[in-house]
Amino acid sequence: MAGTLHVVGTPIGNLGDLTERARTVLASVGLVACEDTRRTGRLLAHLGIAVPMRSLFAGNEAERTVEVLGALRAGTDVALVSDAGMPGISDPGFPLVRACIAEGIAVVAVPGPSAVTAALVVSGFPMDRFVFEGFLPRAGAARRERLAALAHEERTTVLFESPRRTPALLEVIARTCGDRRVALARELTKIHEEVLRGRASEVLASLGGAEPRGEVVVVVEGAAPVAADLATLVAEA
Asked: Which positions ≥6 away from 92 have C-beta within 8 Å?
């Protein structure tokens, strides 16, 4: 009988956010597939759990998916975790989940912390309908196309962005999206958690030309029903 793949949410900063169910599952499985064995190893050590681990990240995801599938076929229960949050949400894991479903292997979610929902609920923007865009392309036409879509989007939008590119993102939103209101959340659940709210130009000014420190999530207010002219989006983001 095949094992079960448990997709386990882990803390995005505060270890106190790990659920009791997640702790129990991590202690009971025969294998933990994780983005970084060093980081997950520290979490397991903190919990007093000793379980074999296999790394599964973007660079080895294809081959490790095959390996983990083999363990599941042999009857081993596996926990899939990422460095933080829910696996597969802008993190490795989706190919393994899809492969398990295709083979009829049970996939069970063990819900946990998520930077997406954490940033959304503190943004002050409507939460009944929203869209998650993940990481934008770094540059070029692909980035411009995604930003053009953002200018049209009437739902609240949640974005991941690197601290280095965050000021440029805010500048583009201010320039091409009607200076939409945003909430910039950084270091969520950690000691230095901070949420900056206001027009994109105001949040940009509050940074004083510096890159925000730590992990960043940008939540963008939805567009008004009548979209603005997007001609200016031809410029580089």
From this structure: 35, 56, 57, 58, 61, 82
